[in-house]
Predict the structure.
Amino acid sequence: MSETARPTPSSPETHVIDYRAAEQLLAARDPRGAVKLLDSVIAAHPENTAARLLRARAFFAAAQLRPAELEFELVLEREPDNAFAHYALARTFERSGRPEQARKHFRLAAALDPQPDYLAAARFEGPAAEGRAGDGPVGEGSAGADPA
């Protein structure tokens, strides 16, 4: 097999493979492994919002809330109409103990995409969300599970 037949460590094919592997790691509850793979993808393609959204979800799943917040905000700078990013940022704010900021983004998510999860979250009124403790941006049924 010739050297040209294999993707090089920094080839576009390698980045696609790393992105897909990061999705699998996140699904397998290995968010730190996903972040490691996505770091190189984002270094090569900093404008790739799908990779940034996946990395933000991985940060959230790893309870790295400040990095998750920064990534979700960067995605929203580029895609202000991304309902899932608003919802996930709201969950990040909620988990960080910032309910007012969370409420704003829950409502934006619901306004952009009135799906039941977003509508229910937009009505959140207390410091603890009943029935939502285990779900979030990395859940199986969450929007954005395949951000590509």
Summary: The domain at 3-122 is CATH 1.25.40.10 (Serine Threonine Protein Phosphatase 5, Tetratricopeptide repeat). The chain has one domain: 3-122. The helical segments are 12-27, 31-44, 49-61, 65-78, 83-95, 99-112, 116-122.
